[in-house]
Design a protein that fits this description.
four-stranded parallel beta sheet, about 525 residues, six-stranded mixed beta sheet
Length: about 525
Amino acid sequence: MNYNQQKKAAKEFAARWEGKGDEKQDSQRFWFDLLQNVYGIEDPASFLRFEQKVKLSHTSFIDVMIPATHTMIEQKSLGKDLNAPIKQSDGTLLKPSEQAKRYAAALPYSERPRWIISCNFAEFQVYDMERPNDDPERIELKNLGEECYRLQFMVDVASSHITREMDISRDAGTLVGKLYNALLPAYGEQPTEKDLQDLNKLIVRLVFCLYAEDAGIFGRRNMFHDFLATFNPSDVRLGLTELFKVLDQKQEERDRFLEKKYADFPYVNGSLFSEAVPVPPIDQSTYDLLLNEACDFDWAQISPTIFGAIFESTLNPDTRRKGGMHYTSIENIHKVIDPLFLDDYREKFHMAMEEKTLKKRLERLKALQKELASGKYFDPAAGSGNFLTESYISLRRLENDIMRETVTDSAGTGLLGFAEEEWNPIQVSIDQFYGIEINDFAVSVAKTALWIAESQMMHETEDIMQREMDFLPLTTNANIHEGNALCMEWRDICPPPKDKVRLSSWETRLLLGQGL
């Protein structure tokens, strides 16, 4: 359902449950009703788990669990004070939230909740266990019609994947480090600075190929793996060298007699393979690592925001300190970009959705999409590009929300008035994102992270449009520049738009505040 439909359903739910609610008799009906009729869960019985056993000094039972989103609910009857301690079976006095936290601590780590809700049928108190010492957010049942979005996390399975994405991205970073360490000895006991730069570029190319085959960008899964499997370890060096050349050639520019195992790969563009980068000899152990461990890993599930920063960890720690690079969590990134521009755009989206007439609503949504596509986002201390990447992902997800309302029909089964196979509704582009970074490897990582983010967002758009869209060839994406931001003219890097520039990091705001 759309936002207006959800608000209406939430008001009706609040009216149904006003002044009623017994913990023993009504809990299941209450949560089934809420999840099915307000949040659109078709089969809440498979989504919710009631009375899950938990072993303390005795056996206790968790009132409600939502495993898919790591949410725990401690339910009390109407009229019970959620802030008052209640005597437990072991004699201790605990508030409902404290009771839930004790249950959480007794669960296996993988089952522990990110969210804890205490509820008495008239009020929801929400605790974010990423900030366990913060006061809870309070949502009153009578206000649910206007505030239903605040409980969206309960059913937002995509958000629950953040932890999984972090784990996958860390594992991917570990693999990158192993590849780096396996290849490094091939450059000799004392590799030069040029050797290390070449190795960094080679690692970026290998990671792109590993991601591209898993994400379907190359045309089919396991394509890169099957290509490598045609070589003996001693021949992989020449095979990769030739493949990198082919990936930078348009179909019409390729040798007409090119072997099929090369010719099947598409033209990539984007300057990723344009420079000649020597590939060192590959020994048996490195070949096994690449063919088995690296190719068997599912790179399509990584978070480009997180992975970009982890990718940097393959650099020598001394190099990291010299370049001033550091990792910023997604949560902290949003503390910057949400008040800077995202909150404003989201508010405009909700205001547009409240328009009563279809014509006016579509006009405002299309105007907002055009506004999203008109801004420029600049980070002069870009690092691995995680501020830029997360900003791009957030804007594209908002654009996807707009397209659900403006492009697809009411049933979500087709396009409104469009039949051209080549038609592309996406307006937000990675070309809107600019950065300066002093470390050459980080520049390559930032570009790659943006490309990966673009690919993942295109897949989400394909699900909305119910049609495939071409990702390759890449756009040039030359907007991440290598250099010292304090010695460069920013206007030459990111020509300001006529109205305003969106700043994507605290460093930018600080530098501007100092008049630099």
